[in-house]
Design brief:
With about 725 residues, the protein is α/β, with parallel strands linked by helices. The protein has 25 helices and 25 strands. The structure holds ligand C2E and calcium ion (2 copies).
Length: about 725
């Protein structure tokens, strides 16, 4: 069994593992989502905290710069609006006083580090730096920002404003500068505007100053960079025009990031714990899912397996066929399905019992299994039905090989439980070229081919042919017409007289059904009876014939009425009661009714046959074994079943004078029957010679065209009258 039943997964079967996986997935998704959410929130918080801190630092730095400038403004005011200074500058021209009170302060004080005295004409009158005089002119010492500041002051002086501060670039760096006209402490200029002398103070943003600012304003790492950075916050140092001379930057504290980093390990541990739990759950889930899947696989396997043989069952075959069809389609090869039905399996089962039957199935399974090519799917799809499905390269050779192997296998009798069992096999083969048919159609065709194989009893394989479908179609319409005929009471019954062999006087009739099919004429019972059997109509036909015959025979005195019974009718458990009901209904004496049965039923169901027969005989019917000599014709049945009469098949009569031993066979058969006290009817007598011969052999009743064809009930009445029988005699 190379194609396993599990290759296709049923949609329903995976529900439980799917649920478990789904729950795990949802759990994992929620955990992952939660984690992302928490991390995002933390990140946002950190960013926000960082931004707030940056803003604060920026404000502080800007404030420091502003207050730094403010300090210079106050110092400039204190040192320029000063009566003593005005006197020394304008009146006394006291250079010593000026040096002592201004110049020296550049070294001692913290308010400014550089000082210039500018004359009314704009000359540098004095220059001090860090406590010592130095030789520089303020025009050279300061950058262009200073000129702007000075121009602004000159413009403002008209409005009585005599001092200005602002950041400027100097030879030594960036400084806050205060420039003011020396004047009285009340703030008024004591000389004409054109004669005003200016003091210029500068305080550089040098390292010491910046460190002091950093310390005072608590700004870590405060430093001055020449250009405003693009990638970090800063506080710009601008001149009076607004140009950036430099920028304060500082170490970013990023408290958010820091707290984030502090918290992160904790979050990390939390996540690890969650992850571990999830992993545990996942492992647990995988184990559960695996187990569920294994269980389901086993269940599925079981549901696709035949317990007795271990082969695929019908469901398994369906799956395998789908796969084989797909394989064939893909490989552009043919998919082949072979149905195999054991002949006479039922006989073995009935004769030896089910245990032996089961052993036979196992034996056949084992035997056939290793005859099949690799990759073939092998299934048991019914009591004694098997199927082989495979993809073939060379279809003709492939099928022929299997057919030969199977036939050879069944040619040898099987030894089962110490008994010899001889069974055969009927095979139906259907081919799906390149897998185009689909498994359902392939199954149908193989089934039809096998049906034909069984019907032909030829013991060989039958290949499906399209004509079988047409045939089947024809049979179907015939079955429908027959059903309608039954519904409309369109069937009739004719009667073939049976004669006494000695007196040659009519002693009975055999009822035979007739069907005049609409538009087709009379259809032979040999044709429509099997169709009625196949389509579940035989019961109705049987009842109709029996009722009709017994009603019509009511006026016929004494003679017997024979009625043909299909084996299928006997299978029906209600048969015994329905015949009894017809007797009751028609009032015809059961003792004058002969039920003609063929041996098929006795072969297949000996026990049930015996029971039914005994019951029917108890009800008064007589039972004849019909068509003796046409089939298996086991003399054993005669003894075993206690028939009331034997009817020799017309094929045997027909063979008289044609086949050498036919006469002997006939004689021996009649002799045997009479040894069991069973009277014998010969049917199919067509010539006077045949009539004489069978009479001499000991047949006591004769029937055949030589005497009379089957005729209508009216004609039987005439015949009886002619023979001198009258109703009153009955
Ligand atoms: P059978 O039971 O063997 O019935 C006798 C058949 O042999 C009848 O054919 C009859 O017409 C034919 N026959 C009789 N004498 C001669 C003869 O000398 N020469 C030839 N060549 N044939 C002769 P029929 O009526 O066509 O019936 C054929 C078969 O159909 C019957 O064979 C029987 O098996 C079945 N059958 C007929 N009527 C019924 C019925 O009502 N119920 C059942 N279950 N089967 C029936
Ligand atoms: Ca008959
Ligand atoms: Ca017959």
């Amino acid at each position: 069994m190379a194609v396993s039943g599990e290759s296709r997964i049923g949609s329903k079967t995976l529900r439980a593992p799917l649920m478990v996986s789904l729950v795990l997935f949802v759990f994992a998704a929620v955990a992952a989502g939660g984690t992302v959410l928490i991390l995002t929130a933390m990140d946002k918080m950190a960013f926000h905290a960082n931004t707030l801190d940056t803003q604060r630092a920026q404000q502080t730095a800007s404030g420091a710069l502003a207050s730094f400038e403010q300090q210079m403004a106050s110092a400039t005011s204190d040192y320029s609006a000063w009566d003593d200074a005005a006197k020394a500058v304008y009146v006394d021209h006291d250079r010593e006083w000026i040096e002592k009170n201004y110049g020296v302060f550049t070294g001692a004080g913290t308010l400014f580090d550089t000082y210039f005295l500018a004359t009314a004409t704009g000359e540098t009158a004095m220059a001090y730096k860090e406590g010592s005089p130095f030789s520089s002119r303020f025009g050279d010492y300061f950058g262009s920002s200073f000129a702007t500041l000075r121009a602004a002051l000159e413009a403002d002086m008209a409005r009585g404003i005599y001092q200005k501060t602002g950041f400027v670039e100097t030879v030594d760096g960036v400084a806050v500068v205060g420039i003011a006209a020396v004047r009285s402490s009340q703030g008024s200029l004591t000389v004409a505007k054109e004669k005003a002398i200016f003091v210029i103070f500068a305080r550089h943003l040098n390292e010491a100053v910046i460190n002091q600012l950093a310390h005072n304003y608590i700004i870590d790492g405060l430093r001055l960079v020449p250009k405003a950075p693009a990638d970090r916050p800063f506080a710009a140092v601008r001149n009076s025009k607004g140009d950036i001379l430099g920028a304060f930057v500082w170490d970013l504290r990023e408290p958010g990031t820091r707290s984030y980093r502090q918290v992160l390990p904790m979050v990390g541990w939390g996540l690890i714990v969650i992850g571990l739990v999830l992993l545990g759950l996942l492992a647990f889930g995988i184990v559960i899912v695996r187990r569920l899947m294994a269980d389901e696989r086993a269940a599925r396997q079981l549901s696709k397996e035949d317990l007795l043989s271990g082969l695929l069952n019908r469901a398994g075959l369906n799956d395998a066929l789908d796969e084989i069809e797909a394989q064939a389609a893909m490989g552009r090869k043919d998919a082949v399905l072979i149905y195999l039905d054991l002949d006479r399996f039922k006989d073995v089962n009935d004769a030896y019992g089910h245990t032996v039957g089961d052993q036979l199935i196992r034996g056949v399974t084992a035997g056939l299994k290793h005859l099949l090519p690799k990759g073939a799917a092998f299934a048991r799809i019914g009591g004694d039905e098997f199927a082989i499905a495979l993809v073939c390269d060379d279809t003709e050779a492939c099928c022929a090989a299997i057919e030969q192997a199977v036939i050879a296998f069944f040619r040898e009798p099987l030894i089962i439980a110490g008994r010899l069992a001889s069974v055969g096999a009927s095979m139906g083969i259907a081919v799906s070229p390149q897998g185009v048919l689909g498994s359902a159609e392939l199954l149908r065709r193989a089934d039809m081919a096998m049906y034909r194989a069984k019907a032909s009893r030829a013991g060989r394989a039958v290949y499906y042919q399209a004509s079988m479908d047409e045939d089947r179609e024809a049979r179907m319409t015939m079955a429908n017409d027959l059903r309608q005929a039954l519904d409309r009471d369109a069937l009739t019954v004719v009667y073939q007289p049976v004669f006494d062999a000695h007196t040659r006087i009519i002693c009975g009739v055999e009822a035979l059904v007739r069907w005049n099919r609409n538009g087709h004429g009379f259809v032979a019972p040999d044709v429509f009876i099997p169709i009625a059997e196949d389509n579940g109509l035989i019961g109705r036909i049987g009842e109709f014939v029996m009722r009709q015959a017994l009603l019509e025979a009511a006026n016929w005195p004494r003679i017997s009425v024979a009625i043909n019974i299909s084996p299928l009718q006997l299978h029906d458990v209600s048969f015994v009661s329905s015949t009894a009901a017809i007797i009751e209904e028609t009032g015809f004496p059961a003792e004058r009714v002969i039920l003609e049965l063929t041996e098929g039923f006795f072969i297949r169901n000996p026990d049930r046959a015996k029971q039914s027969m005994a019951q029917l005989q108890r009800n008064g019917f007589r039972i004849a074994l019909d068509d003796f000599g046409s089939g298996f014709s086991s003399v054993g049945y005669l003894r075993e079943f206690g028939f009331d009469r034997l009817k020799i098949d017309r094929s045997l009569i027909n063979a008289l004078g044609k086949t050498p031993k036919a006469g002997d066979l006939l004689k021996a058969t009649v002799a045997l029957a009479s040894s069991f006290d069973i009277p014998v009817t010969a049917e199919g007598i067509e010539t006077p010679a045949q009539a004489d011969y069978v009479s001499d052999c000991g047949c006591d009743e004769l029937q055949g065209f030589f005497f009379s064809k089957p005729v209508s009930a009216g004609e039987i009445s005439c015949l009886l009258e002619k023979a001198g029988w009258t109703a009153s005699v009955a």
